[in-house]
Amino acid sequence: MEGSVRGSIVARIGRSLTAAIVLGASLVAGVAIAIVAGPAQIANAVVTGGMWALMSVGLALVFGVMNIPHFAHGESFMIGAYVSYFVFTPVHEYLKDNPNKFLSTVAPFAGILAAALVGFVLGAVIEKLIFYPLRRRTRAQWVMNAFLLTVGISFIFTNGATLVLGPNFRGIPRYWDVEPLQFLGMRIAVDRVVTFAIAVITLAAFWFFLRRTRTGRAIRAVSQDEVGAQMVGINLNFVHTLTFSLATSMAAMSGACLLFMFQAYPTVGLKPLYFSWYVVMLVGLGNVAGAMVGGFIVALLQMATQQFVGIAWEDVVPTIMMILVLLLAPSGIFGSEVKGVQEQ
Amino acid sequence: MKDTANTERNRLSKAWNGVVVGLERIGFSPLGFGLLLIIAILPLIPPFNQEHILRWLIMGAFFAAQAAAFDFTAGYINVVNFGFAAILGLGAYTSAILANKAPFLIVQPGISPWISIWIGALVAGLLGLLLGMLTLRLRGIFAAVMAWFVGIALMGLVRNLPDLTRGALGLHPPSLLETSSNLPYFYIILAMMVVTYIVLRMVTKSHLGLAFKAIGQNIDAARASGINPTKYRVLNFTLSCLFAGWLGGFNAHYLCSLTPQTLMHTSKTVEVLAIAYIGGRGSMWGGMVVAFPFVFFIEYLRSNLQELPGLHLVIYGVLMILVMIFYPDGVAGLYRWIVARVKSRFR
């Protein structure tokens, strides 16, 4: 089934046609936004795009390596936002009374780093506590079971956050209290520049890790062939835990970075989750490289929707795009790297 | 003298056998039917005849019917309809708009709710058919994610078309009956629950059910034995959505208040999903048995622990995860295990 579809000319034309439509649409969207709303909006889209890329890379990785459709990914975002808020705010309060230039530059990084660390540990704990026992019990119908488990995790985290922290919004106006940068006649807040830099550096480091290090190769080997990887002596349990930890960590990091755009509250993860699933389905399930590009495409399309259709329709437009993709190129515009998109 | 007693006993046991066979044909065990009868007379017995407990019973029957319709897809063809609540909401809104007589919407067809419920069911079934045709040729996860997307889009549509749905303000459709008592509504939803169960059970008992089970367990093997998986999966999905829309229509004209957030949100799907899975996937009756005590437990918790909002939802999540990891057969599996133990002891 898989071979016949992947090989068939119709599917190939469908995929390249959809890729052309989507890329063209995002290009047109970018130009249109730049003309109508000014280049500052483009900068906005690029910043969100970097974060969506960071989120969806984790999602693609977890699906590619562990075959888990991760529906608690937004909750990692939420936890990252909370952690960064609770680390950054006390320091910020302290700085109000005793100004300290060095500390005020470093404090936001501390918040973001703390979020990434908490995410990493949390990912390991969730993997060991929930997916490891299930993997030991049975691999039958794994995808659906894992999907339902993540739904349960998401439910526990959102409602647990409401229970412990209440439904209040916790946000900050900005991380760095400095003048916006002047760039090509635009004024861009330092937060956005730094956030974008963090996204790019993390993605590059992650790419290097996957491609060039021994552990990264092990992760890719597991995503290609689990049995073969086990035969050549790769420790599957370690790879699974590491993968999940990395994904959770990156999501938590993007939650922390975007704290100035998304205030922390229990269900803040819904929108990032929705958009990262949109990215992953658009580029092809499990396609990590595609997810990096897809994040920016989706951010542009999202910005265009807000600009020209109305912010209220933000939930409706992606669905229409998804229907198009599923009709023309079910394995995504860049193709899926997961073994078989057709039912196996 | 002894002979007549024997023939009498024979005749009785024959009659009993006839009853058992008859019940089995519509999908009930004697015990299950007994439970149904108990639930049916429960609102007439004193502690349960108060209006607020009646409301809980109605919610229980409503959840039970939803769990059956949900498990029909999740437990048989192994596809999770993650937009279940939104499709139910589509049925509810369709029925409510068609029944609307009040002047604050742009359309006032004013069709009787008794008729519009069926149209709502058909519309929901039609959406299920289209969605199924789009996604069910792919892996099951595509159907789940796409149903989720469509569910969120439907919620967005309801919010963005205030002329038709009054948006987030909420719609107030006319009620099914001109009474303030909950008792008649209880018997209506109980009947709907029984119809849902019997129809779906008849389908799963036929050759269709065999095909569904085969597809759910091993789709390649099913395909190799000449079953067209897409056809059967679409059929299954459509039926499930049809019943979801039908139940949504009842919800609309019983509560007489519809808002997108309380009706179509994904967390509503998760509630049904949790009940169906704790009850035991692939059994259909497991979720129905669990629904009643569960609703009572949750409502009790909610009314007694108001300072801890969301606790009952955390319990949903924890229970679901525990059942999924450690005891995937749920309550139905437990029952089967006990029956097997008892039988082996008395043999």
Keywords:
heterodimer; A: 344 residues; mainly alpha; 13 helices; disordered N terminus; B: 347 residues; ABC transporter involved in vitamin B12 uptake, BtuC; globular
Question: Your description of this structure?
Answer:
The complex is a heterodimer of chains A (344) and B (347). Chain A has 344 residues and is mostly helical. In chain A, 76% of the residues lie in helices and 2% in strands. Chain A has one domain. Chain A contains 13 helices and two strands, in the order H-H-H-H-H-H-E-E-H-H-H-H-H-H-H. Chain A has a two-stranded antiparallel sheet with strand order 1-2. In chain A, a hairpin with a 2-residue loop joins strand 1 (181-183) and strand 2. Mean pLDDT of chain A is 84; it is low at 1-6 and 340-344. With 347 residues, chain B is mainly alpha-helical. Chain B has a single domain (29-346), classed as ABC transporter involved in vitamin B12 uptake, BtuC, CATH 1.10.3470. Chain B has 16 helices and no strands. Chain B has helices at 2-25, 30-41, 51-74, 84-99, 113-135, 140-160, 162-165, 183-205, 207-217, 219-224, 229-255, 260-264, 266-279, 285-304, 311-326, 330-346. The longest helix of chain B has 27 residues, at 229-255. The mean pLDDT of chain B is 85. The interface between A and B is large, with 50 and 50 residues.
